[in-house]
Amino acid sequence: MCCFANSLNLSFRHLVLLISIMSHFIFNGRIYEQSAPVIGCANRGLRYGDGLFETMKMLDGSIIQQQEHFERLWKGMDVLQFEKPGLFTKGHLISAIKKLAQKNQHEKAARIRLNIFRGDGGLYDAVNNIPNYIIETWHLQENSGQWNSNGLVVGIYEDVKKSCDILSNIKHNNYLPYVLAALKAKKEKWNDAIIINQFGRIADSTIANIFLIKDEKIITPALTEGCVAGIMRKSLINHLNQYNFKCYESEVEVDDILKADEVFFTNSIYNIRWVQRIGDAVYRNIFTQKIYASFLPTIC
Fold it and tell me: Global pTM?
């Protein structure tokens, strides 16, 4: 009887622990358990990828580069012709993000995904253009932005080309080129895959913007080349120009990156990550480490 009681007590404690760490998400202001169904088959986000998203990083309860993320989000919503009602504000969304991070016990370090999408309707008859939204958080290792001493092994994905148009610079939900490139990377055991634009030049990678260094000249694909307008990309370019490390935004051919001295990637979660190899090309990291050391204290 005593063993049975102890077993029940242990099971109860496990249940309490499970409930306490169960992940939740927010849909249009309400908190749901992770498995709760909230989207119907008539949803335009599901049917057409009619929406966009932001991936952000939280440290110690604060969203890193919060203003820049919401500026990009608002510009993207204008491109996609959303109507923003009076209560749909940056302050409202930031408050919801922090509330969810607290609920999920992710305040110390978290990756945040804010997804905006249109509601129900067909292609020509949306019920309205008011944004729906889902917020998710995931625990993030506190060392996620530290220097990656092993370097990334990367490949070039050429089966699907990225268009250069008004959608290229925003993080919209039509993500198939990146999805297929990520599947290729997983199959080939790459850490990431480089995306090629419609002209056969370098755009970005599945999760990052690309920088290369040749003869101490820093180059990154211009926004007109179809890359996402990365928050970390913009911050780094400003930093480099401020400290006399001139950064050039231009066209980048595949041959340019294969003949570079150094290559590194940037995004909001990992900051700067050195690329050690692309195919048979192997890269140093001397200048990249200097950039990392000078830049990191400005964003943390």
Answer: 0.90
CATH topology of domain 152-298: D-amino Acid Aminotransferase; Chain A, domain 2 (3.20.10)
Burial (CB < 10 A; 0-12, 13-18, 19+), residue 262, is buried
pLDDT at 244: 80
Helix axes 66-79, 90-103, angle to 10 degrees: 120
Count of C-beta atoms within a 10 Å radius of residue 161: 17
231 neighbors 112 (Cβ within 8 angstroms):
no
Domain regions of the chain by residue span? 24-139, 152-298
Q: Are 169 and 228 in contact (CB under 8 A)?
A: yes
**Contact 236/272 with Cβ under 8 angstroms?**
yes
Name the region of 177 (left: φ>0; alpha: ψ -120 to 50; beta: rest).
Answer: alpha
Note whether 103 and 24 are within 8 A (CB): yes
Of 140, 141, 143, 171, the C-alpha closest to 55 is 171
Give the whole-angstrom CA distance, residue 192 versus residue 275: 10
For the record, the structure tokens of 30 come out as 């309400």
CB atoms within 10 A of CB 178: 20
**Domain 24-139: CATH architecture, name and number where available:** 2-Layer Sandwich (3.30)
Give the mean pLDDT per block of 10 residues along the chain (300 residues). Answer: 47 48 90 94 95 97 96 97 94 97 96 97 94 97 88 98 97 95 98 98 98 96 98 96 89 98 97 97 96 84
CB of 104 closer than 8 Å to CB of 48: no
Report the chain's terminal Cα–Cα distance, integer Å.
Answer: 55
